[in-house]
Design brief:
eight-stranded mixed sheet, 265 residues
Amino acid sequence: MYPSLHLNLGEAYRRLSGHARARAHLDQGRAVAALADDGYGRMIIGGLERLGWRGLSRTGGNGLVDMIEHHPDAAFGHLGTPRLILRRFVPDDLAAFVEYRCDPEVARYQSWDAPFSVESGERFLAELATAHPGTPGEWFQFAVCRRVDGVLIGDCAACSTAHDPRLVEIGFTFARAHQRRGYATEAVGHLLQYLFTAQHERPPAHRVSASCDVRNVRSAGLLERLGMRREAHHVESAWYGGEWTSEYTYAQLRREWFTQRSAAP
């Protein structure tokens, strides 16, 4: 029966497309199935969910439920650039992590308040110890270290949305002592490469977005240098630091990233 099958790629396409109450197609190397929202369809959906598939949406008017195979990147170890390593956080990062989060200038446009306590840092790193990139609805923080000496200089983050993990939001924070050296552009650029290419069981992102305070000129400039498009200016849309703040939203599609990459000298 379908719930017992490890359905993926061509097998899912062949077997689901041959069923009168289902359809399937391939999307960026992953199988996407649309299943009838009835008793039999729900039985298949339950089996797919146990295999790591995610429900995306109900397709208007035809009674089908869209599903996609999606698994977090549990095998993630690290990413490398010429000057940096993006890796999982470890307990020894605590002191440096808390130090830059305590800096009022670093925290100014972020969601936390300075000072940032050691206890908060310990809880944060403990939660990350069992987390994996690409887990739908959960943020994953990548520690960013200098390759030459292993010093922690900041972090990048990514969150695959719960309703469709092909849509990803990113963020980044860097210690003030390591800003204005191109490290953030290098790290976030490599994070985009990671997200837009398939990794182990994690499918590639279709769209990556980011938001920043309109007063955060350097973050906005970084996103624009990386080819992200400013899509919106939200006026007084978020409450941070005891005030209503306005935000820019930036985004890039996977095909746009590949076009930009192929055009680079």
